[in-house]
Amino acid sequence: MGHNVEELSAIVLDTSLRIHRALGPGLLESAYEIILAASLEKQGLRVDRQMPISIAFEDILVSAAFRADMIIDEKLLLEIKSVEALTAVHAKQVITYLRLMDLPLGLLINFGGATLKEGVRRLVNNHTHFASSRLRANQIS
User: Fold this and answer.
1) More confident residue, 29 or 126
2) What is the pTM for the complete model shown?
């Protein structure tokens, strides 16, 4: 659990690239999620899958309002997709999850495209510890 969120992000992206290169697009999201989780655990990371998250609004509590695909070392949120192309809705979902969970960084990873690079979005929640301001963008270039 000694990695910072940037190191975790790099490990996740490297592992995701290896999985996509080996398996390609077209599998169910759940298959990519299981393989990615197992691969990250083999590297010594803590992976919480399908974690139920509650929402509080004023005096209203909604238990298990949504499930986060993966939380890595209690620091990094991963949302896994297997679709032809990501949409703005997918990114908004991750940003909302980050805010509700008070996590600094989330990765939206789409295994459904021809290349993984075009299917990765890096989403931040008031997170300012970046190597460069270029990384603030919502897309890895």
Assistant:
1) 29
2) 0.83
Both tokens of 28, joined, read 């169910």
Residue corresponding to tokens 């139920």: 52
CB atoms within 10 A of CB 123: 22
How far is the first Cα of the chain from the last one, in angstroms, to the nearest whole number?
A: 28
3-state secondary structure at position 10: helix
Strand order in the sheet with 105-110: 47-57, 60-72, 76-81, 105-110, 120-124
How far apart are the C-alpha atoms of 6 and 61, rounded to whole Å? 32
Residue matched to tokens 């070392």: 73
Q: Identify the H or E element spanning 35.
A: helix 29-42
Tell me the pairing of strands 76-81 and 105-110. Answer: parallel
pLDDT at 16: 97
Tens digits of residue pLDDT in 104-139: 999 999 999 998 988 899 999 874 444 433 333 333
129 backbone dihedrals φ, ψ, rounded to 5°: -90, 70
Q: Any long-range contacts for 48-54 (C-beta under 8 Å, 24+ apart)?
A: 48/74, 53/97, 53/100, 53/101
Secondary structure of residue 139 in the 3-state scheme: coil
